[in-house]
Amino acid sequence: MNKPKINRVEMPRQKADKRKGNFNEVAQGYTHEMAKTEASRCLQCKKYPCIKGCPVNIDIPGFIKAIRDDDLPGAVGVLKKDNILPGICGRVCPQETQCEELCVFNKSGNAIAIGRLERFVADWELKNKDKVKPVAVSRSTGKKVAVVGSGPASLTIAADLARMGHDVTLFEALHTTGGVLIYGIPDFRLPSEIVGEEVDNIKALGVKVELNYLIGTIESVDELLGRFDAVFLGTGAGLPIFMNLPGENLSGVYSANEFLTRVNLMQAYRFPEYHTPVKVGKQVAVIGGGNVAMDAARSALRLGADKVYVVYRRSEAEMPARREEVENAYEEGIEFIFLANPTRFLGDEKKVLKAIECIRMELGEPDSSGRRRPLPVSGSEFTLDVDVAIVALGTNPNPLITSTTPDLKTTRWGTLVCDEDTGRTTCPGVWAGGDVVTGSATVISAMGAARRAAVDIDKYLKGDYIRPGQYWRESKGEEPAE
Ligand code: FAD
Ligand code: SF4
Question: Which of 154, 201, 214, 339 registers the highest number of CB atoms within 10 A of its CB?
Answer without folding.
Answer: 154
